[in-house]
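Below is how a single chain appears once it has passed through the pipeline. First comes the sequence as given, then the structure the pipeline wrote out for it. We keep one example in the README because the format questions we get most often are answered faster by looking than by reading.
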Amino acid sequence: MTEDLLTHDEQLEHLVDGGDGEGCSALLESLDAPDAVHAVSSLGEDGRARLLTLLDPETAADVVEQMPWPQAVTAVSMLDVTAAAAIVNELPSDKRADMIGALDEDAAAAIVAELAHEDAADVRRLTGYAGDVAGGLMVTEYLEYSVSATIGEVIADLGENAERYADYEIQYGYVTDESGQLVGVLRMRDLLLSPRSRAVRAVMIPSPESVLDTSPLAELVTFFDDHGYFGVPVVDSAGRLCGVVRRSAIEAAVAEDRDGVYRRSQGIVGGEELRSMPILVRSRRRLSWLSVNIVLNIFAASIIAMHQDTLEAVIALAVFLPIISDMSGCSGNQAVAVSMRELTLGVIRPREIGRAVLGELSMGLLNGFVLGLLIGLVALAWKGNPALGLVVGGALMLNTLIAVLVGGSVPLLLKRLGFDPALAAGPILTTVTDMCGFMLVLTFASLALPALTG
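Resulting structure:
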């Protein structure tokens, strides 16, 4: 088979097997980002690690940045310390710190020891921040100049370090005083159009906007929503410049947070999962949630067993049981979503359960009445029995009310108790809506049995 007939995945595998680093680099450079990611992901763990050893460190770092993060961490961890350090050193400062933080302690320490003193100190400082604050999201690649410098000195520095600065995302230069405190920003336009002898102080924008290195993600989201900046300087408690956080980093962090919440809500615990990961790891993560959920479902099924005679007498109820359970669950999940969002935005606190309940009460009554009326009319039209309509309609109305009250309050209660609301709220809500729905339908049916069977 000629190489032209091979897919991109097969071409890359062929080049890696043949040890052709230049060919690998040329192929990856010719591919769009999605095709490159797919081709690299198709190699398998050993193939991805070998690919990184064949590429020059700068190109390998670009590949690592494009790869799904679990695959990237695994590939780097499989390399010898020297090769891993060379690649990590080429990553942007925020990714470099993330990689060191994701590796096991011994491997991380060995790689940091291979870095230049300044880079190693930078990594240690960045890994000391939580991942969801400005310090953990910022980069340390930025232009910093003394307030006493001249325009000519700044331009000379740019020329001397042009190759180093080429990878920086430069919008502004940042001006600091003798103690490192941020005192101004320098626009590139003002820099280029000003006389060389003029002082930086004369053309800088004084007292610029900044954020603290401890600012949480929610505050950063609000800041960028209110300002059209591409980035903002990060300062410590003393006002000293320590980095720049980009809008793109905040958007990526928000997307990652949402993905994490969604995965946990669907029972994927323990972090990101890819099908290339070991099967036992994937199975353990899923079963940790599924095994709990099966126990909860047994409780719900026990309600049906307790009313078996009623269900046998009015078999039509079996049609409506899953409808009532599912519709109530949907209503409850809407309430969960609102509570999770309000917790994220900080507009409600975990102790304000009463406020959430009151906010959902009128909604539950209104939506419960509408949904109950609709399902009641369906039952009446199907069987021509008003009692059946009242039973299923009344059950859905009350269960909808219960679902939104539980859905609105459980995330706050779990947060207050120190549990992850995204992980635990779903199973609790499902169990409550199933048990209450089944119990309401079958209890109402038992009370109205003569009218239902007459």
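The radius of gyration is 30 Å.

See the next section for the split statistics.
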